Amino acid sequence: MYLKHFELRAKPFDLLPDPGFLFPSAVHKRALAYLRYGLQEQSGFILLTGEVGAGKTTLIRSLLRQIPSQVTLAKIFNTQVNSTQLLRLINEDFGLEHAINDKTELLRSLNSFLIAQYAAGRRSVLIIDEAQNLGAKLLEEIRLLSNLETDQAALLQIILVGQPELRERLNSPELIQLRQRILVHCHLSSLNYGESSQYILHRLEKAGNRNALKWNPGCMETVHAVTRGIPRLINILCDYILLDAFSMGMREVEPEHLKALLEQLDFETQFWPVVRQRNENGTGRVNKAELDAVQLKNEVLMAAVADLARRMDIMERDHRAHMAAFRSMLSSVRRMEGAMAHLEPASRAPLGRAGMERGTE
User: Fold this and answer.
1) Per residue in 75-115, pLDDT tens?
2) What per-residue string of b and e applies to 243-268 under the rule 16 or more CB within 10 Å gives b?
3) Number of neighbouring beta carbons within 10 Å of residue 299
4) Fewer Cβ atoms within 10 A, N terminus or C terminus of the chain?
């Protein structure tokens, strides 16, 4: 609709996870390097987590473009299933017979397939997205799939992708065996302000015109603040910004127009959950983002206090060490004084005849 107006070839802020638009932020580049390493080294399990909209699916699709041709891949996106249904989904994506309700038969079929792939010099990789929806029992059954192996190698490599709750779930005592099998961990955090600004310009450039919009002072800062640096929310808001500018026949973003747009969209309450918190005056309506900001400040303060305590502890240890050295030196001085006091009377004793004669020669 607005592509011609902004001289663009494609929508720059589409919500589809197009790996061609992947923004190489520091955290995304690191995660991609970890994923490549895990695949190259054939690590048993790889874990990729990140907030909703942080770019996990885009990153995975970028990784899939680089997977060697000798890798056979299965991808699971539906995790609201039981163990038998999960096995059926895995077998189906590997191209196996899956219209079977017997779990043992499904496992036998999968094991035979993996052995045949290994014998043919191929590797098998399973990607499970939205893995935070899997309960402890299903996660444990997935771990057991990694036991399908020969004497020389594991037959199946598994990549678990999910939201931060997945890490919390994996920390439970009952999943310690699975946790110990995860050799590569990656986490996608949100973008900082500088990265958010570059992300916007990067996507505009990929779509055909980096200078499609003139961003007046304060506008990019506002976009980063209200989206908290979450790529998906940046896409949603920037798409509205383009549409709004197009409707007014403009090619720039004005602070007052952006403010009016945010109020119209009710962006804060639309995309950031609101929680209720009881206080001494009753029940108040508090924005979760504000609570998160308070929590972050508390964490920063606690970290600063902990760092100060650590520094004071170091100073105290240094002080004790210096005092011990001083006491040792003082003790040595006193011993020397005692020795000198013992020698002094002898130095004052009268010389014998032989000494006198030598002294007068």
Assistant:
1) 998 898 999 999 999 999 999 987 888 899 999 999 999 99
2) ebbbeeeebebbeebbeebbeebebe
3) 10
4) C
